[in-house]
Design brief:
With 244 residues, the protein is an alpha/beta fold. The protein has a single domain, classed as Rossmann fold. The protein is built from 7 helices and 7 strands; from the N terminus they run E-H-E-H-E-H-E-H-E-H-E-H-H-E. The chain has a 7-stranded parallel β-sheet with strand order 3-2-1-4-5-6-7, sandwiched between helices. Strand 5, helix 5 and strand 6 form a beta-alpha-beta unit. The longest helix has 29 residues. The protein is globular and about 50 Å long. The N and C termini lie far apart (41 Å).
Length: 244
């Protein structure tokens, strides 16, 4: 542990696996106490055990990030347990890779609600806490699909572009109050993301995509900047990306 975030409190959505779990481990290794939220209680409990072995504390809230009650309950848990909230990592998200005409309205709602509505809800309930502190860091885990479009991913891209625009607007709104807002945009990452919805376990395992820990490293970087600096946007691609 380097303790660069000792005494800080982070809230991470979608914390039970993939990038979310990697962020839990990375921020805990820097000394942060963490409030986790996701739907899989057993996985979060195992992560909290890991955190406690590092000497930091964790709390978990089991719930659906698309529901306002979950956002409110998780932010309240952070404040009641630790007295503050310094970092919000809006990580939860889903993908479904389909051509537009094959995408149903229900699939549209699932992606938009999971990716953008959850981001709005958790940020909406976190900001008043950070305004009272006159400090904080809010990060959106978007995607390179939020930077430019991909065939067969139009709706997914729309949700990720929305996160980027949301972050850009909030940066201007909240920076005068001492709150930093940024967005992390990785390319493909080796996680459970979109399995059965355009990806297979075999295709992910055989790929040269980023590892979750690569993305967590960018999150740590954004959270450990000096008080006078902020990271607005990080674009990440694997070193194995073709040049043509």
């Amino acid at each position: 542990m380097t303790n660069r975030l000792a005494g800080k409190v982070a809230l991470i959505t979608g914390a039970s696996s993939g990038i979310g779990a990697a962020c839990v481990r990375a921020l805990a290794a820097e000394g942060a106490n963490i409030v986790l939220t996701a739907r899989r209680q057993e996985r979060m409990a195992a992560l909290i055990d890991e955190m406690e072995r590092l000497g930091v504390s964790g709390q978990m809230v089991v719930g659906d990030a698309r529901e306002e009650a979950t956002a409110r309950q998780t932010v309240d848990a952070a404040v009641k347990t630790f007295g503050r909230l310094d970092i919000l990592v809006n990580n939860v998200g889903v993908g479904n890779y389909k051509d537009l005409v094959e995408t149903s309205p229900d699939e549209y709602d699932e992606m938009m609600d999971s990716n953008m509505r959850s981001t709005f809800l958790f940020t909406r309930h976190t900001v008043p806490v950070m305004l009272a502190q006159h400090s904080g860091t809010i990060l959106m885990l978007s995607s390179m699909a939020g930077i430019y479009g991909f065939a067969g991913q139009a709706v997914y891209c729309a949700t990720k572009f929305a996160q980027v625009g949301f972050a850009q607007g909030l940066d201007k709104e909240l920076r005068p109050e001492g709150i930093k807002v940024g967005v992390i945009c990785p390319g493909g990452v080796k996680t459970e993301f979109a399995l059965g919805k355009g990806r297979t376990e075999e295709s992910v395992a055989q790929s040269e995509m980023l590892e979750p820990e690569d993305v967590a490293g960018a999150v740590v970087l954004a959270c450990t900047q000096s008080a006078r600096a902020r990271i607005i946007e990080v674009q990440m691609r694997t070193m194995a990306e073709p040049l043509a």
